[in-house]
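hiii so um. not sure if this is the right channel but i have a protein structure encoded as tokens and i wanna go backwards to a sequence. like what aa goes where. can anyone help
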């Protein structure tokens, strides 16, 4: 009974969010599309060579190695390697989501795309967090004030730094804001 109630509440909350987003989709699209374009440009333009990556961002280099090890465990065994993602323990779901996005490129031996795709996942969650912030602010504020708050968040340098590298910060933030 409790699970059914929770499921109904989650479904109704998601439906309300999507209906609200559908009513305001043009302005949301016009505001958030340029942010997405800049994030994609940053994700795909800088430090995509695996050799340079290890000197620029040791965390991303280590995460890439963890994803390769997980893929090896999934594809060739032992299966325990799927759950062995090294000294960074951000949780299995974080690594699984990134593994699912990079697996096709690992299979194709496309290292550049295998580096870019987890960044794009992080950028997607950063943008999703901004949309959640906007929608949350719209409950209490005008459209202009809501956009201003999102703009203030988006111009902070840490937004761009954390949104363009392989870390769970924005994924956690998006889920946290969605839970409010």
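sure thing!! here u go:
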């Amino acid at each position: 009974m409790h699970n059914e109630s929770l499921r109904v509440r989650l479904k109704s909350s998601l439906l309300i969010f999507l209906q609200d987003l559908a009513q305001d989709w043009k302005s949301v699209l016009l505001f958030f599309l340029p942010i997405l374009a800049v994030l994609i440009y940053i994700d795909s333009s800088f430090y995509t060579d695996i050799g340079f990556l290890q000197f620029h961002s040791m965390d991303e280099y280590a995460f890439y190695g963890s994803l390769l090890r997980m893929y090896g465990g999934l594809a060739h065994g032992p299966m325990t390697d799927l759950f062995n993602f090294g000294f960074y323990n951000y949780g299995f779901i974080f690594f699984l989501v990134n593994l699912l996005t990079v697996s096709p490129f690992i299979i194709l031996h496309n290292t550049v795309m295998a580096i870019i795709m987890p960044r794009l996942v992080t950028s997607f969650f950063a943008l999703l967090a901004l949309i959640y912030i906007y929608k949350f602010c719209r409950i209490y504020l005008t459209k202009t004030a809501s956009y201003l708050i999102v703009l203030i968040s988006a111009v902070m340098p840490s937004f761009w730094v954390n949104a363009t590298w392989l870390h769970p910060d924005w994924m956690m933030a998006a889920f946290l804001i969605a839970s409010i």
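oh and The chain has a mean pLDDT of 83.
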